[in-house]
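Sequence, please.
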């Protein structure tokens, strides 16, 4: 392992952990990305210059494939700065989109990305992921929940909380979609991203909610690194 990777993956995290002993891991991710946005004025996953991995309408296109209609209530869990959520906001009726993420900085950048006109027309709700805000989101009885490019950023120790929070938002009729980089086994791909197998995801979900049904869909074919971009469809 290269020394710079050793620093990035371990020493930097534990230095942060010593300074922030009570904060959850997701705050480390938010602090790391937020620091880069502040320093450079941009980042490829957050803010005005964030880029879609494939197309800006990928999330909307897949949700429509699974039946999303403008009248449905939709939660974008881990929405970041809404690089994929914007197309969904534009499609849904006013007030039907809710974005949630770990830091207000990302959400503020997302509202800026949407623009004042779209915000005024569609009234999207955005909120930091807290117990109170999760309860408020659950009370809306969402028809659809999506978590795109989020699962890969969750380390082993936090997977139960991540899946548990999403599952707790579901009603008996909610359809939930979780995107993840699929490999034959869980592997750390870089300092902030992990892969997961279908079996590992299924086991993590069923440990929390054994009755949930899971279907898997591949977005891409396997690449040279053995990764297939995949999403899991959770429903009762």
């Amino acid at each position: 392992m290269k020394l710079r990777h050793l620093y990035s993956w371990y020493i930097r995290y534990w230095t942060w952990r010593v300074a922030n002993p009570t904060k959850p891991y997701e705050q480390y991710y938010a602090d790391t990305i937020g620091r880069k946005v502040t320093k450079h004025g941009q980042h490829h996953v957050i803010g005005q210059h964030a880029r879609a991995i494939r197309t800006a309408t990928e999330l909307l296109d897949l949700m429509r494939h699974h039946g999303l209609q403008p009248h449905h209530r939709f939660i974008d869990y881990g929405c970041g700065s809404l690089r994929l959520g914007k197309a969904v906001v534009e499609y849904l009726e006013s007030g039907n989109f809710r974005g949630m993420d770990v830091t207000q900085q990302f959400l503020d950048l997302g509202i800026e990305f949407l623009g004042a006109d779209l915000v005024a027309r569609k009234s999207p709700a955005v909120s930091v992921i807290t117990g109170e805000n999760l309860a408020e989101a659950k009370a809306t009885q969402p028809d659809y929940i999506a978590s795109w490019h989020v699962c890969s950023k969750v380390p082993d120790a936090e997977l139960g909380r991540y899946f548990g929070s999403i599952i707790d938002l579901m009603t008996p009729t909610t359809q939930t979609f979780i995107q993840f980089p699929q490999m034959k086994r869980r592997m750390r791909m870089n300092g902030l991203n992990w892969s997961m197998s279908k079996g590992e995801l299924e086991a993590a979900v069923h440990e929390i909610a054994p009755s949930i049904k899971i279907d898997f869909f591949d977005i891409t074919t396997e690449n040279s690194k053995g990764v297939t971009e995949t999403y899991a469809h959770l429903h009762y």
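The first strand starts at residue 74 and ends at 77.
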